[in-house]
Write a structure and sequence with these properties.
The radius of gyration is 13 Å and the shape is globular. Strands 2, 4, 5, 6, 9, 10 and 11 form a seven-stranded mixed sheet that branches. The chain has no helices and eleven strands. The chain has strands at 3-5, 8-11, 16-21, 31-37, 44-49, 55-57, 65-70, 75-80, 89-96, 113-114, 118-123. With 124 residues, it is mainly β. 0% of the residues lie in helices and 46% in strands. Strand 7 and strand 8 form a beta hairpin.
């Protein structure tokens, strides 16, 4: 089970840090991803961190968002800086334990476990 937290209402240019935590003791074996879904839009990839700590970002957030993980705490983080109104969405954490094919990080269907999501709203 994955539990996200840290969402909220902020102004453009502000920062937020999302957290994704689990009680699963095998956390360190999984890749973790963040996805988001805005109203009326499809879910989209945001960022991912592999079990090896390799990191991947969508072009739209590169340079503004940073993904990280602390295996000892069984927690993944998404630091979001310079937020824009277009970042408004429900953000979901997901975990992936297998199936590392081409561009595996951006394929949401390849993640086995998902959290319930946390709302991020950025006002202009």
């Amino acid at each position: 089970q994955l539990v996200e937290s840290g969402g909220g209402l902020v102004q453009a240019g502000d920062s937020l840090r999302l957290s994704c935590t689990t009680s699963d003791s095998t956390f360190n074996r999984y890749a973790l991803g963040w996805f988001r879904q805005a109203p009326g839009k499809e879910r989209e990839f945001v960022a991912a961190v592999a079990w090896s700590d390799g990191k991947y970002y969508a072009d739209s957030v590169k340079g503004r968002f940073t993904i990280s993980r602390v295996n000892a705490n069984r927690t993944a983080y998404l630091q979001m800086n310079s937020l824009k109104p277009e970042d408004t969405a429900v953000y979901f954490c997901a975990a992936k334990g297998s199936g590392y094919g081409f561009s595996w990080w951006r394929d949401g269907s390849g993640y086995q476990f998902w959290g319930q999501g946390t709302q991020v709203t950025v006002s202009s």
